Description:
Four copies of one chain form a homotetramer. Chain A folds into two domains: 5-134, NAD(P)-binding Rossmann-like Domain (Rossmann fold); 138-291 and 293-332, Dihydrodipicolinate Reductase, domain 2 (2-Layer Sandwich), CATH 3.30.360.10.
Amino acid sequence: MSTPQLNIALIGYKFMGKAHSNAFRQVARMMNPAAEPVMKTLVGRNAEAVQAAAAQFGWQKTDTDWRKVVRRKEIDIVDICTANDTHMEITLAALRAGKHVICEKPLAMNLKQAVKMAQAADAAGVKHMVMHNYRACPAVALAKQMIEEGRLGRIYHWRGTYLQDWIMDPDFPLVWRLDKHAAGSGAHGDINAHIIDIALWLVGAIDEVCATMETFIKERPLLGGTDAGLGAQAAAGKGAVTVDDAVISLARFRNGALGTFEATRFAGGRKNGWGFEINGEKGSIAFNFERMNELQYFNREDPAHLQGFRTILATDASHPYMASWWPAGHIIGYEHTFTHMVGNFLNAVAHDEHPHPDFWDGARVHAVLDAMSKSAAARRWVGVPEVVPQPVLV
Amino acid sequence: MSTPQLNIALIGYKFMGKAHSNAFRQVARMMNPAAEPVMKTLVGRNAEAVQAAAAQFGWQKTDTDWRKVVRRKEIDIVDICTANDTHMEITLAALRAGKHVICEKPLAMNLKQAVKMAQAADAAGVKHMVMHNYRACPAVALAKQMIEEGRLGRIYHWRGTYLQDWIMDPDFPLVWRLDKHAAGSGAHGDINAHIIDIALWLVGAIDEVCATMETFIKERPLLGGTDAGLGAQAAAGKGAVTVDDAVISLARFRNGALGTFEATRFAGGRKNGWGFEINGEKGSIAFNFERMNELQYFNREDPAHLQGFRTILATDASHPYMASWWPAGHIIGYEHTFTHMVGNFLNAVAHDEHPHPDFWDGARVHAVLDAMSKSAAARRWVGVPEVVPQPVLV
Amino acid sequence: MSTPQLNIALIGYKFMGKAHSNAFRQVARMMNPAAEPVMKTLVGRNAEAVQAAAAQFGWQKTDTDWRKVVRRKEIDIVDICTANDTHMEITLAALRAGKHVICEKPLAMNLKQAVKMAQAADAAGVKHMVMHNYRACPAVALAKQMIEEGRLGRIYHWRGTYLQDWIMDPDFPLVWRLDKHAAGSGAHGDINAHIIDIALWLVGAIDEVCATMETFIKERPLLGGTDAGLGAQAAAGKGAVTVDDAVISLARFRNGALGTFEATRFAGGRKNGWGFEINGEKGSIAFNFERMNELQYFNREDPAHLQGFRTILATDASHPYMASWWPAGHIIGYEHTFTHMVGNFLNAVAHDEHPHPDFWDGARVHAVLDAMSKSAAARRWVGVPEVVPQPVLV
Amino acid sequence: MSTPQLNIALIGYKFMGKAHSNAFRQVARMMNPAAEPVMKTLVGRNAEAVQAAAAQFGWQKTDTDWRKVVRRKEIDIVDICTANDTHMEITLAALRAGKHVICEKPLAMNLKQAVKMAQAADAAGVKHMVMHNYRACPAVALAKQMIEEGRLGRIYHWRGTYLQDWIMDPDFPLVWRLDKHAAGSGAHGDINAHIIDIALWLVGAIDEVCATMETFIKERPLLGGTDAGLGAQAAAGKGAVTVDDAVISLARFRNGALGTFEATRFAGGRKNGWGFEINGEKGSIAFNFERMNELQYFNREDPAHLQGFRTILATDASHPYMASWWPAGHIIGYEHTFTHMVGNFLNAVAHDEHPHPDFWDGARVHAVLDAMSKSAAARRWVGVPEVVPQPVLV
């Protein structure tokens, strides 16, 4: 009996489009998922550009109208890699057409949108997943496994940071990611969202937060040329940055743990420096994405004179996901966080199981993001609403 | 011409008494300070214990009455290593007797006391220093030097943590440090004070803070026997922990930088894990005390393909304090942070210069400590009052 | 104008077959090579197994007879991933058919075979490359670039190790890699070959070597069942290990540098721990494959108080190969060393340029391997013959 | 009952004199040895210089004639920190006077001298110790303890390096350490001796070695002025370097382990970078002196998914020597390797026990040093003679 095939339509073809395409291309070659993805259609507004991308990434067809594509009978899964402000609309359309949906993070523009999407997805009876891909780092999945094995015990501390430095140059231009209308927020929604998801997954629900944000460079050169549709003249001018460059926050978890969060694009030398440390009663774990194949672990129950933080090189067949890859010690790269996520999703569809993180998980991240934004604006602690799936009436 | 001698009286002989004694014993052997300390009198309440300590550490005399000792003509410098709630009283008495004063950190019980001590010290016209010894780690002093050399430029971020784990066992008893009346606070005054001092020194004044605190283990076994003066019966009982186990805080610096602080005794595997990272427009530096001879430095002005965090092993004669020690690569230990501080103080006295950090610096730490405590209690942002020395009327 | 296509035949489908297949599948998707590979035919002796592998890896056709395949007109490039003792025969057949040839390392069974292959390849006028894939780690290629930029100056030391631990269990069975007839040697040809190639590339020619080898576990359980064609009875028995478990060697380079080499399968905890340190008059570099995206660099010309080993995270667009991948800080994995090598080869074919490392480079590795083997047997220093390409008479 | 006192005479007052003085001054203050050292007499040829050093380091008296001093009744222990070529003469004189003797490493000029010294010391019935101080790094002593606890099992590999860079500048002058007559050898006797001692202690006896040496900078500026007694004219000239800049060696241990040794003064960026890795059947350990408070440990018997090299911060009271110092996480420095050694020796004298490493251990290091030198000269493997104490006829 052969592996079933599932046809994919991918909307969007930039950085995330490249990463998701790679995952679809690789997953069946490496992971033996229960269903094989067929890279059917790549969708983008610019016909020429999307055709070039499809040729580059290996898609069979292209289209410029996502509305038509998501309704096509041949499509089984719609994967959304567009700007955040289009996630809800595309998702709802795909759900109406009965498609399984994968959506890039952050799931929506805010909690309200996210809950609407999650409810619609449940009601549609399809599989839905938000691409919080970092859950699928083998070392992070190992952290989850170790917590479930009881190796940390009661958790006291979460310390999460996401440090980048790509806009530190004051001459870096005013790209859309620095425009509130286009991007919603800056470092907050883009990268804080990642560590919030990991915190919720590993430590649990957050009760309340207290945050503050800052924009260090308040004006930047306007983009000239075709990007902004402005003349060369305008390119000489400057415009206001309307999103945060950095956000820091305190948090209290429901289980009593204290947490700190920091996300910034102004940490010189930290390129994609996201990581965390968790301290529990029985042990501690720490992770740094720039060494994504490694997990630090301190076992308080080792003999006293032999205790120490150990570097687990999570590349052994005994580690999550790694049986699919190479012999131990042969590290894997960033892109396979997506490969693993797509593999999980294909398995969920094929086995009619529930994938994770689903849209409710995506909504929970928004609950925290929104509370932090509100806290930063109001300069006070803000409670995080509990996000509970609504029962679907059949 | 021979080096002048200065007679020391040290009040207190436990952990800090041992560390300060060692510094006085070593400083003239290694650093050639402009004045040589004479270890004249060690003071403690228990005659037998203080005699044993004096024999162990190398003091000429002992006494049980600090009031008498600080007034003795032969004493030039009074060094205070007692519990925090006695710092002010002893300091003021020593100042009245015209002695130079060194005081352990935190300087006092609160900002008000600290300012009173600083004003009195200025009025007395003597030299005064608070023992924020970590400024005298060579690698930390190198960080200061690099900032003054302009190698970081405008500073965007401070990320400071002080992580310990010595009271994680729920059976660890209710020692005086866990009693608010005796200790004032828990991790906050004990270890957060250290990283606050370093932040103020390296980054500058803090405008406002928002903190929260937690006591994870709320009851602990009472100390039995001689310590608590209770019978074996009582030892079976438990008492309430009345100080914080951990504190986390946000901060905004006057220069626009964002800061985070965390101090905890519940970070398993972190023994004396205090450290920081500072991100500036031109570079970043990072420090971890458990590798106290090293400073991490990222230079954003290196050629692009050669940029990276470098580990400066601050043991070279070109590094602060290190010309006094061994050839490069031969690391020094914790205790010499005190040796360097004492050396600095002796030089200040001999040359009639102003030592640092002085009592005003100690008061500035209290201004932040108090603001964080208030913030944690009130659950809101709290401004940090500016601490400005009052002119002394001559 | 479209990119030309080149049809590939791959002989072999185990570990290396999987890695090479992945490279052919990915290279045009990521690197924009000047020619696009077409995964035409996968070849193996077992029809069923090779068909399964072809389906898994994405090959169009399969065959069980490499002799026929290498002669097929449609094939442009033959890639050889079979056992070492077949490399020469297959290569010579492919060359006779005028095909470009890629061959796994070590190139041959010994220097004599290797030279014969190199001469034949030159005479055939085709492109030839030996798959010393580790040259294509971006961080290793950066090391090469830095040496060429003169950043190390005169080189004094090479310190190379290749540490693994996968056969430390005495119950690990007597696989073919532990049989001299099948494998030629143990750790020596398998992994010492890698660091020898890197040494030759980065430091230059080796004049003489002095080596010794050891087999720590001299008998191992025989493999039962289909692998060895023996009955279950035999499986209970043991057989002699006839290859080295470990080899260590001294070396003198032509430029006056001293070198050490160590390759072992008995270094517990080192999974694929190959690395090197090079000390030059102006600086030092160090590399550890288990952190393959990083290169350590010490610049002796930095200001004295700022010197230190820096960790270059070689993931920036300014680093070799990395413009093809992800933004800085998003690391890549082991498999892309092959992707880069295949990309280089395709470019060489398309542009009619000379690829590296070619078969002569492969022969140079054999010259060192053979000298070390001879040295270990004779217990003395052995000179390494110079390998110079013979002029091809046209 | 009070602690007995032992009067010390120290011959030599430069780098090692400073380090030993510090140890005598500190040991009773920190370690509670069973006997207290009295810093009686510091001896040196230059009266003025030795008086200055005695004042600096805290000695009661000085002398310029070691022959007289070692015979003085008041002296209990003679400690020898002079140039290597005087070790034997001073030692034998001190032994004749019935003194306990501590001698800096390397013990002598060669194996023959060393054995003579050891035999004389045994015959004298006194305590004798060679100052291979690195055995007394707590992390190294922990390694020894772990090996004795059976945590490594059978040992397969030793990998030892001692890397420095202090003479890399070609303008660094021709100091006595670069003169064979004064120094005996270069990096070999100075620093290779250290790692040889550690290898013998941790792994066991070495059967045979094969070494090579190199002098990279063959001529250096002559020292002018007072140092060399030459005029300014001569200072402009150059002289030949007559010792090795670097030595590398293979070794075979009696227990079947393979070993490599490297000692060099031309490893840019490595200041006092000595370290080792040992791989055993049950685990591995690794050490790097520049992080001397840390020991790396890999336990092959941990659960598979939790294995990793752990960093033991050897500063806990459960670690060797550390109960004498500070709370866990407060690291100690280089100088206390001497403090611990002196403490061990005082205990040995007070308890009439045998100290280690004794002169026979020092002779065993010479057996290896001599064999490596012979091997380098003869370009072949050389056996290491077994050094067995001769019975003393009473």
